[in-house]
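Researcher: Next entry in the queue.
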Amino acid sequence: MSERNTVLRSLHDIGLAAWFGGSLMGAVGLNGAARDTVNEPVVASRIASAGWAAWTPVNAAAIGIHLVGGAGLLGANSARVAYQSGVGASTFAKTVLTGAALAATAYSRVLGKKIELASSSDSEDQAAAAEHPVELEKAERQLAMLQWAVPALTAGLLVLNALHGEQQRPEQQRQGMLRRAASPLAMAGGTGLAAVRRACHNGPMTSHC
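Model: Structure for this entry, 209 residues:
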């Protein structure tokens, strides 16, 4: 069976790149341009909200393909996660960061939609905003913080992605396997880890060693 996971890695990396890059561009470029172009805060909020609304479907697709690629890579590297020292911890950290980034992205969109409705001049939007009233200035402050939190969290994912790449180096895999096999818990865990240790000593390094 091939040891390459090119399609999964492409989905994972392209999705994460779009998620990070789009959120950073929106926080820096879109929000900044709206503020600098229009002096009226309500109109500036309306322009920024329209831009974020247009980006939302693309961002959702990027997040989706990132999660698909990530799940596939996790399955393909399950043995390394279980048996290579350090990989399980970095995978757990990446899972936590991914969850936090998803939560921040989702709540940003909820706040953005409320601001979009509250700042709209359309009567139907105003009626919808009245059903879910929001303090516009407070919502804008919260949204500003969240829109910076998303690129910060996804940047953390990029750093962990780089760490995972380093952990896949043959020497890193060998050392991680040996450290795990030598740990007290592994020594008490039976022959499974011993077999992995022998395989890493005696055979060529693979994606599972």
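Model: The mean pLDDT is 80.
Researcher: Noted, moving on.
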